[in-house]
Amino acid sequence: xxxxxxxxxxxxxxxxxxxxxxxxxxxxxxxxxxxxxxxxxxxxxxxxxxxxxxxxxxxxxxxxxxxxxxxxxxxxxxxxxxxxxxxxxxxxxxxxxxxxxxxxxxxxxxxxxxxxxxxxxxxxxxxxxxxxxxxxx
Length: 137
Known about the structure:
Shape: globular
Structural class: mainly beta
Largest sheet: 9 strands, antiparallel
Distance between the termini: 50 Å
Order of helices and strands: HEEEEEEEEE
Helix content: 10-25%
Radius of gyration: 19 Å
Oligomer: single chain
Strand content: over 45%
Strand order of the largest sheet: 4-3-2-1-9-8-7-6-5
Number of domains: 1
Number of strands: 9
């Protein structure tokens, strides 16, 4: 009996982790988001196996993954996929965060935050924004 219970628990745990990321976020997603201050910001993300990449246009005009950020991390669970990157240069440090929620196979809900800090001689000043909207495949 103990072996049966242990086997059943092990099987349930394996099935649960196999379906933890049940949605396929793979693809090129883009959209114009509404910022809290009334402005807009365009976002384009490429997702491959739950890894979220920024994109850039190369010298030939082709869209490619942008690996220029110092820190990039993505993690998905269920119907959500979160990603952030951090970078620095000279007197500034920047972080961008993307929280993606599955709406359909062609649409994602997104919450996006950008935060920049600048060394200004007397310490640091900062600025940033938050934006929401949808991304389409």
